[in-house]
């Protein structure tokens, strides 16, 4: 969901039952389209991939989408065992065991079509109004900068529409998220915006298992092995392409 | 709840409800207007709420494409109580609709939404249209109307009942109690004042009313009492009046009539007003025919004539009854205050009129009687001298002597001729030879003269109160008159076999009085003015027998010439008429009292003489001795006499209680009636006569003095029985009456006269 949380805790907890073999694993992630979402096909790319990989590794999997704060609390007190759609984060790594990343996403700017904004440096961003998600973390230097004209909004979908209707000069997010937001926007803005090629930052997406969960390491190992295997046989890419359509 | 029946209360409450309804309508209207205004204000407040609380959020959310927030805000607007529809159209084309606009009245407000991007750079972001229904406002209004109606109805109902009750408690019941008091019998008794059933006097309007009613009742009652007193007095006067008094209205109806007049109208007893009885008519005295309409006294009185002592014959037509002679007077009412048009005063003068007629006839016969007597005497003397002369001449041989004797006869014949020629030439009365003489010697002579003529089984007594009492008249005629009377009594006793005694009584006579009553005596009162300070005195000589007495008819005709009760040829019928002629000529009076079965008294009232010869000069009138408030029980059966005597005795200074008969008198005495002296008539109808009454009274009150009175004075002591008492001759003049009463009331009773 929020890039802030993804960045700081950077994790997808894989919530599982105590036993690898016998019990069903509950994989939870927050609402973060297109990576995870209750109404997305396969509940989003992240949960679909994690479920597919774990099932391939021989686990029974059930997935669910819950709010981010509930995930963090549940992972600490043992309610949830596996969390998906996580960026790597030191703090989370203290109590959760990260798997290998299964996807890399890039943070890019978006402008209204026809504009020629320069987004290549923070200094260059100074004249522009930039719609940013409330509490979202995009890139540390950008996030810290207080000289930028940031317009705080709640969702990326808002941000892209604001840009499309020139209520903001720029916005930024993972390009998958931007594309999804443009596509799902309440207004047809597909032809009104351009995603700029400049990459502000890149982030890997993981899953993680609660460290005190019995067999946590086994589960992570199983996941990593299956993931590697799927990567090799190309089934991972096929699965990913089902979920990600980037704005051209 | 019976107070609800009280009409006044109902009307007041009805008006109160009406007034309350009008004010309630105004107040409710105002209230409803307020409620309506408040409702509208609330709706507008909701719009302001939208403006104040949602507009900025919406503008911002729309600007930021935060449509979920927009949804939340639109929902927030939609849940406002009166908002039924919200439509938000974003500038970017999104549309948010909530609710729908139904029928009903609505308020719509549009809010143009815009975002101020920077100072002065305002960008429209959408249009918000909020529709609020006034259903709630009207619903509240309607429920308020219902509540107001209901509460006002209940409030008014309860207030009305309370008002009703209060009004009943404070006013109605008192008014009703006053009404009941005024309606009840005897409600106008001022002693029984109206008092309201209230704890105290408030001096409010009700107390005022009651005060006024009580005062007016008292006033009215005293006025009524006064009216009643006046009415009673008027009634007493009318009832006592010996004149008939008849008040007529313009239609000739009798509207007021006193008993005497009723009697004159043939004893009519109908209630007034009544029409003048057709059968009673005024007739001409002379012709005895009905008067012309122009002469009819009623018609004349009604047409404004004042009738002045006209005498008519009042007669009942188609009746054998003898009519009454009446004297009619009338007064025309100039300013009548009621329906009375005229008042007739009708006096029955039958007795006087008949007497007048009799006297008129008699006075002619008197002269004839006188003449007859005088002529007979003179002729007797002449005839005697002629007889002697002729008789002597026949036996005388001496021609000369014979011639002298025949000359005497011739001269006697010539004197007779002169006498008859004088009689023929003058029809003038002989004055008679009036002289004064003492009663004593006169009675002695008369006793010698009459004694031999009275049978042995009859007694004749002579009583002289004062032998020196002088009588001034022609004594020869007096002797003849007394002889006539004594012989009449003797004849009556012998003829009937009733009675045995004759009494001749001389006494100081009463002054002639105005007639107190029609006693049936023959004469009219002698001329005496009431105001006279002096009058002639008289001497009374009465001849009384205890024979059969006379009946009414005989008494009425006793003095008629040629009327006689004796056998044919045994009398001339001229006796009493001659006596009557004599006393009238002597300036005296004749009174006859007779009670059938008791006897007869004939009273000669003759002028008092003097020892010197001529008639006694008029003497100053005696002043009656005044009574000192003692109570006289007067018993007299003749109502008129009773009434007059009551007044006379009252004037004499006594108190009077009267009774029309012995029975009534005894009843009154037994009922506790107080009195000091009994004055009673002797002969009265009913079982209790005067003597019996006296006996019964004495049996109850042995100390009470008794005085009898009667026209007939011949009662004996045997007839008087147990109670021997003074016997007054009726009518007694006030002087005698007061003297008798005072004497009877004196400590030592005077012995009875007989």
Topology (elements, then pairings):
The complex is a heterodimer of chains A (248) and B (754).
Chain A: H1 3-8, E1 13-14, E2 24-29, H2 45-56, E3 60-65, H3 68-77, E4 82-86, H4 90-93, E5 96-98, E6 103-112, H5 122-125, E7 129-133, H6 140-144, E8 149-153, H7 156-164, E9 170-174, H8 175-184, E10 193-210, H9 216-233, H10 235-243
Parallel strand pairs in A: 1-10, 2-3, 2-4, 7-8, 7-9
Antiparallel strand pairs in A: 1-4, 4-10, 5-10, 6-9, 6-10
Helix pairs in contact in A: 2-9, 7-8
Chain B: H1 7-63, H2 67-78, E1 83-90, E2 95-99, E3 106-118, E4 121-133, H3 135-183, H4 205-240, E5 244-249, E6 253-257, H5 259-264, E7 274-275, E8 280-283, H6 297-302, E9 310-316, E10 324-332, E11 340-348, H7 350-395, H8 399-425, E12 435-438, H9 439-450, E13 459-464, E14 470-473, H10 475-496, E15 501-509, E16 534-535, E17 538-545, H11 552-557, H12 575-585, E18 589-595, E19 599-607, E20 619-620, E21 631-635, H13 639-651, E22 655-659, H14 662-670, E23 677-681, H15 690-700, E24 706-710, H16 717-720, E25 726-729, H17 734-745
Parallel strand pairs in B: 13-15, 21-22, 21-23, 23-24, 24-25
Antiparallel strand pairs in B: 1-2, 1-4, 3-4, 5-6, 5-11, 6-7, 8-9, 9-10, 10-11, 12-14, 15-17, 16-20, 17-19, 18-19
Helix pairs in contact in B: 1-2, 1-3, 7-8, 7-12, 10-12, 14-15
Structure notes:
- The complex is a heterodimer of chains A (248) and B (754).
- With 248 residues, chain A is α/β, with parallel strands linked by helices.
- Helix content of chain A is 35%, strand content 26%.
- In chain A, strands 1, 2, 3, 4, 5, 6, 7, 8, 9 and 10 form a ten-stranded mixed beta sheet that branches.
- In chain A, helix 2 crosses helix 9 (216-233) and helix 7 (156-164) packs across helix 8.
- Chain A is elongated, with a radius of gyration of 18 Å.
- Chain B is α+β, with helices and mostly antiparallel strands.
- Chain B has a seven-stranded antiparallel beta sheet with strand order 7-6-5-11-10-9-8. A five-stranded mixed beta sheet of chain B has the order 13-15-17-19-18. A five-stranded parallel beta sheet of chain B has the order 22-21-23-24-25, with helices on both faces.
- The A-B interface holds A 131, 151, 153-155, 157-158, 161-162, 165, 167, 185-187 and B 63-69, 92-94, 115, 117, 123.
